[in-house]
Design goal:
Length: about 160
């Protein structure tokens, strides 16, 4: 089975197409930035984008993502013309506001924030809280998450201008 992840093609075994995307990312492809939390579709730490929509990779079977474009947090940064890494505005904002504590939830937080901002690049505080409300942070970084999402939206607006 072929998967497209962060605009790269990967070939994985199609022996059991019901296995969760999360384990394929982490254990088979070494894309371990996406984290396992609850394993039950509740906490959001395993969030990735599939065709631009946030999905919980711990409960997403491989068969559901065949032929679709998967994006993980490893795919956020880009390279400039001299090969230097350029962080995505969401990453920049999360670093600037020192959002992570243990950081376990952060890839899921950033992918969820990205999906929000790609749909709405000027979200209100209420819209941010609503969009992020199903991504749990055991360290309680919610205030900094909200601030960083607002800043990321502003940075993305500036990029688009
Ligand atoms: S690990 Fe997937 S939602 Fe918690
Ligand atoms: S930073 Fe520790 S769980 Fe969110």
């Amino acid at each position: 089975m072929n998967l497209t992840i962060n605009q790269q093609d990967f070939s994985v075994s199609d022996e059991d197409t019901t296995r969760p995307l999360l384990w394929v990312l982490r254990d088979e492809l070494g894309l371990s930035a996406t984290k396992f939390g609850c394993g039950a579709g509740i906490c959001g730490s395993c969030s990735v984008q599939v065709d631009g929509v946030t999905m919980r990779s711990c409960v997403t079977p491989l068969v559901a993502v065949e032929g679709k474009s998967i994006r993980t947090v490893e795919g956020l940064a880009t390279e400039n013309e001299v090969g230097e890494e350029v962080l995505h505005p969401v990453q920049e904002a999360f670093i600037k506001h020192q959002v992570p504590q243990c950081a376990w939830c952060m890839s899921g937080q950033m992918m969820t924030a990205l999906s929000l901002i790609e749909k709405n690049n000027d979200p209100s505080e209420e819209e941010i809280v609503n969009a992020m409300s199903n991504n749990y942070c055991r360290c309680g970084c919610y205030v900094r998450i909200k601030t960083a999402v607002k800043e990321a939206a502003t940075l993305m607006q500036e990029q688009e201008a």
